[in-house]
Design goal:
Helices cover about 40% and strands about 15% of the residues. It is of the alpha/beta class and about 290 residues long. Strands 1-2-4-3-5-6-7-8 form an eight-stranded mixed sheet, with helices on both faces. It is globular, with a radius of gyration of 17 Å.
Length: about 290
């Protein structure tokens, strides 16, 4: 186990959520709490580890809760179908188990959509949680604008089943991950090695075709997932890496036009993973609205 992964593992622990073991990091505020707890929802194909460089800054004055969806990171990795709605179920149950009834949302990549499902439930009266504030980071909000990577297209085309050993190699997965960073970003070998270690923990890379069903689900259910992200009355901050080759700049432009009251922070020279590529700038952008 790498030092980075070991350090992250020690910050959290496993909880049983709806009969599955889920890795949860629950960070208390460093100072006087000035905002509701913050729930962080990570992206594909990585995990809550994406936020390891910014979590302490986020927790300066509020509790921060992060977790790995089942099938990701350090959570259980059963061979079964996965869905964005299922990840929202896990998030809702975890929040209830922790006794949280007011929270902010910080979401990235597929986490934006998981958050959209939670907001839809809340607006319908089916999720009894007050959402106090929201931060959206690079994600596939408008499917007509998405530029899927070759790796995403490959995974989407595969059957919804566990891959044979060796179909996805470390080099292939890490090349795909690094391809989402800004061309100006110097890739940190230890950082991407840790990301691979968490993806491949208990042969998790063999589940990536199962996880990639989110693309079809996102496209099919856009009418449910996207409107709450635009219409929810809670204050919205958008933090976007402008060199993202997947969630391209046109995405944030459309989002800003649809949400004129939103605070929009465009990070030049940053790609799809702003919390990894520019952690200080990302943390400053996120915390600047609270």
């Amino acid at each position: 186990m790498s030092d980075l992964v070991d350090a992250w593992r020690t910050r959290g622990g496993l909880r049983t959520v709806d009969s599955e073991r889920v890795f949860v990091v629950d960070v208390p505020p460093a100072g006087v709490p000035r905002a509701a707890p913050l729930l962080v929802l990570h992206g594909f194909p990585t995990s809550s580890f994406d936020f390891h460089r910014v979590v302490d800054a986020l927790a300066a004055d509020r509790r921060v809760v992060l977790f790995d969806y089942p099938g990701y990171g350090l959570s259980a990795k059963p061979d079964r179908p996965y869905s964005l709605v299922g990840h929202a179920d896990t998030a809702a149950r975890l929040v209830a188990d922790l006794g949280i009834d007011r929270l902010g949302l910080l979401t990235h990549d597929i986490g934006d959509t998981v958050g959209g499902e939670l907001l839809a439930r809340q607006l319908e009266g089916g999720w009894p949680v007050e959402v106090t504030d929201r931060v959206l980071a690079n994600g596939t909000l408008f499917m007509d604008l998405v530029q899927l990577s070759p790796g995403q297209q490959l995974l989407e085309a595969l059957p919804d089943e566990r891959l044979a050993p060796g179909v996805l190699t470390r080099d292939a997965v890490l090349a795909g991950l690094a391809g989402t960073f800004s061309p100006s970003h110097e890739v940190d070998a230890a950082e991407v090695d840790a990301a691979w270690e968490l993806i491949a923990d208990r042969e998790g890379e063999r589940l990536l075709a199962r996880h990639a069903r989110y693309i079809d689900e996102r496209r099919r259910e856009e009418g449910r997932f996207t409107p709450p992200l635009l219409d929810h009355p809670s204050p919205l901050t958008v933090v976007w890496g402008m060199d993202d080759p997947i969630a391209v700049p046109a995405m944030v432009d459309r989002l800003a036009a649809a949400c004129p009251d939103a605070r929009v922070v465009r990070l030049d020279g940053v790609g799809h993973y702003p919390m990894v590529e520019a952690p200080e700038r990302f943390a400053t952008a996120v915390t600047g609205h609270t």
